[in-house]
């Protein structure tokens, strides 16, 4: 008999997810025009502002990244997560005071969702996302990864979405200082290099360790299988780290 487990994410997890690109731009994704960046009430306020959802495997199959389109300053977080019979159902909400308007830009944003129970990544996963203005689903194809055993190892990871050339990056570190992408380039037949912005010299970060997500877009790859991602820049945190982009 299948079992259903419903979890409500802890406040700390919500904080981490809210910081993922919420106040930073997402270079390599959509660059809004100056007019689009103005604040004000707009259809981009809700978690399902525009377009279909996408998803990517992360953290060795312990986590998925759900990509939605909308305001870069109103990134949705996972308020409720349910896994049953190979279907992950996630309720997305925009945190904070909804009286505060969102910027009118339209960019891909990622919500990181930890899986409440282990799943076999090779079997794939159906994802249903709900929320204000959002009722969509997507099938996350199986990948050649073992079923996760144990907690995260806090290592960076990356996974392809269904959109050609678009992938999600997961890193771990201070939740108050998420990395910001400066440049994304194809640097080999099966190699992509992401360069993060150098942090300000006077930047002060909290001492916690949480998940941070970025959405990136790359052009020029003939095949997205067996692609290696190189992470560089961003101070001493990233120094030529190499990881596969799964999916």
Which short descriptors sum up this protein?
247 residues, mainly beta, 5-stranded mixed β-sheet
Structural class: mainly beta
Q: How many structural domains does the protein architecture include? A: 1
Can you write the helix and strand succession as a string?
A: EHEEEEEEEEEEEEEE
Low-pLDDT segments:
1-44
Helix content: under 10%
What Rg, in angstroms, do the CA atoms define? 17 Å
Shape: globular
What strand order characterises the main sheet?
11-12-14-15-9-10-13
Write up what this structure looks like.
With 247 residues, this protein is mainly beta. It contains 1 helix and 15 strands; from the N terminus they run E-H-E-E-E-E-E-E-E-E-E-E-E-E-E-E. It has one domain (5-246). 3% of the residues lie in helices and 43% in strands. The strands form 3 sheets. A 7-stranded mixed beta sheet has the order 11-12-14-15-9-10-13. The two termini are 30 Å apart.
Give a short summary of the structure.
With 247 residues, the chain is mostly beta strands. The chain has one domain (5-246). The chain contains one helix and 15 strands.
């Amino acid at each position: 008999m299948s079992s259903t487990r419903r979890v409500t994410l802890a406040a700390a997890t919500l904080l981490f997810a809210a910081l993922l690109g919420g106040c930073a731009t997402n270079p390599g994704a959509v660059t809004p025009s100056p007019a689009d960046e103005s604040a004000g009430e707009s259809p981009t306020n809700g978690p399902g502002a525009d377009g279909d959802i996408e998803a990517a495997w992360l953290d060795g199959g312990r986590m998925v990244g759900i990509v939605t389109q909308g305001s870069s300053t109103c990134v949705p977080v996972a308020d409720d997560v349910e896994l049953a019979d190979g279907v992950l159902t996630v309720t997305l909400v925009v945190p904070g005071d909804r009286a505060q308007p969102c910027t009118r830009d339209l960019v891909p944003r990622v919500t990181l969702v930890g899986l409440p129970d282990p799943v076999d990544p090779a079997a794939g996963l159906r994802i249903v996302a709900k929320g204000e203005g959002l009722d969509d689903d997507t099938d996350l194809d199986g990948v050649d990864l073992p079923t996760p055993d144990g907690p995260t190892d806090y290592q960076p990871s990356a996974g392809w979405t269904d959109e050609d050339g678009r992938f999600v990056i997961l890193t771990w570190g201070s939740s108050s200082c998420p990395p910001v992408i400066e440049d994304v380039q194809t640097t080999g037949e099966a190699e992509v290099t992401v360069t993060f912005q150098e942090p300000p010299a006077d930047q002060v970060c909290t001492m916690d360790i949480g998940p941070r997500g970025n959405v990136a877009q790359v052009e020029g790859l003939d095949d997205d299988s067996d692609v290696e991602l190189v992470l560089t820049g961003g101070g001493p945190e990233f120094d030529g780290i190499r990881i596969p982009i799964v999916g």
